[in-house]
């Protein structure tokens, strides 16, 4: 189906800068609100559209937001679902909303959902988005239950996750999960650091329990990149932890980027690279570097906030 392939390719080329999305998503470290943002490409109403799914959680609230972009203007329509712990009934439900005259239906069942320190569940749940009796986006592992409840058919082409960003809070350790290749299991990613004490600062980045990157003398190598091998697949890892060492504690985050594929740039051959001055917020150069990759469109951003 060439129309579908061409339309999706064009939609990727017209996406706003991911670096700009990072800047446009403010987080208040005082509230320690963890969040996970996933952007999918889904075929809705004859067009490939961005579907943004955001999970947020703090001490008082837990919510899920689904936004679908319009192709007629720069607007988008949003469906918000509150998952407050004392409102058990809200963990299963149904809502409708419209985008460009097309009615969409959102179904969810999170009553048995399992969480592991993240606002996003990792099993025993489903979230389904329906358009014209077709499941255009399906999250979670309760797929049979989702199809049975929605009485809708699977999409001809699955939605594609191409961008994930997670804000995590901690003192020394930060973790997340990501799937670097379709039809493969998710990998566990852990970043650990030692930035205080008599010894020189160090940092470790492990994937699936294996330390793949160990940075000594972090005060000189606070910004760099390295390509590692995960399940026989190359993954580029970029980091910038200037804020951990030289900015006011908790004022901003360290940034980690994980991108499948091999970079064509010479900087990858050098392994770790040392940066100069930083304003603790400019990520444009990272996205510019990633655009030269021979890789899938997926990219994971981990924003790690150190809480003292």
Write down the domain tally. 2
Main beta sheet: 9 strands, mixed
Give the percentage of residues in beta strands.
over 45%
Number of strands: 20
What's a quick, concise take on this entry?
This protein folds into two domains: 2-161, no CATH class; 171-306, no CATH class.
Q: Which characteristics define this entry?
A:
single chain, 308 residues, mainly beta, 5-stranded mixed beta sheet, 12% helix, disordered N terminus, DUF868_pln, DUF868 domain-containing protein
Furnish the topology, listing elements before pairings:
Elements: H1 2-13, H2 18-23, E1 34-44, E2 47-57, E3 62-69, E4 76-82, E5 92-99, E6 102-109, E7 126-131, E8 134-140, H3 143-150, E9 153-154, E10 160-170, E11 173-178, E12 187-194, E13 202-207, E14 210-215, E15 223-230, E16 233-240, H4 242-246, E17 254-260, E18 262-263, H5 284-290, E19 293-294, E20 300-306
Parallel strand pairs: 8-9, 10-20
Antiparallel strand pairs: 1-2, 1-10, 2-3, 3-4, 5-6, 6-7, 7-8, 11-12, 12-13, 13-14, 15-16, 16-17, 17-20, 18-19
Give a description of the structure:
There is one protein chain. The strands form 4 sheets. The chain has a 9-stranded mixed sheet. It has a 5-stranded mixed sheet with strand order 5-6-7-8-9, covered by helices on one side. A 4-stranded antiparallel sheet has the order 11-12-13-14, with no helix packed on it. It has 2 domains: 2-161, no CATH class; 171-306, no CATH class. The protein has helices spanning 2-13, 18-23, 143-150, 242-246, 284-290, and strands spanning 34-44, 47-57, 62-69, 76-82, 92-99, 102-109, 126-131, 134-140, 153-154, 160-170, 173-178, 187-194, 202-207, 210-215, 223-230, 233-240, 254-260, 262-263, 293-294, 300-306. It has 308 residues and is mainly β. The chain starts with a helix and ends with a strand. It is built from 5 helices and 20 strands. Residues 1-30 are annotated as: Disordered.
């Amino acid at each position: 189906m060439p129309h579908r392939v061409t339309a999706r390719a064009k939609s990727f080329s017209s996406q706003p800068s991911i670096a700009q999305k990072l800047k446009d998503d403010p987080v208040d470290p005082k509230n320690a609100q963890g969040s996970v943002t996933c952007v999918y490409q889904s075929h809705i109403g004859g067009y490939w559209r961005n579907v943004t799914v955001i999970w947020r959680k703090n001490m008082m609230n837990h919510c899920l937001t689904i936004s679908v972009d319009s192709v007629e203007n720069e607007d988008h329509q949003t469906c918000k679902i509150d998952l407050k712990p004392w409102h058990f009934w809200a963990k299963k439900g149904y809502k409708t909303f419209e985008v460009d005259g097309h009615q969409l239906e959102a179904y969810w069942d999170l009553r048995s959902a399992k969480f592991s320190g993240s606002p996003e569940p990792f099993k025993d749940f489903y979230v389904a988005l329906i358009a014209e009796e077709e499941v255009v986006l399906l999250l979670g592992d309760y797929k049979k239950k989702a199809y049975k409840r929605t009485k809708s058919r699977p999409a001809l082409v699955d939605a594609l996750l191409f961008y994930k960003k997670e804000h995590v809070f901690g003192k020394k350790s930060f973790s997340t999960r990501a799937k670097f290749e379709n039809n493969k299991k998710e990998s566990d990613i852990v970043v650990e650091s030692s930035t205080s004490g008599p010894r020189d600062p160090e940092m470790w980045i492990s994937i699936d329990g294996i330390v793949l990157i160990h940075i000594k003398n972090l005060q000189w190598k606070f910004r760099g990149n390295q390509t590692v091998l995960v399940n026989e697949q190359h993954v580029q890892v970029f980091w910038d932890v200037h804020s951990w060492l030289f900015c006011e504690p908790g004022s901003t985050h360290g940034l980690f980027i994980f991108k499948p594929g091999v970079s064509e740039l010479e900087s990858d051959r050098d392994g770790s690279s040392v940066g100069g001055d930083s304003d603790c917020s400019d990520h444009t150069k990272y996205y510019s570097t990633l655009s030269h990759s021979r890789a899938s469109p997926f990219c994971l951003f981990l924003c790690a906030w150190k809480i003292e």
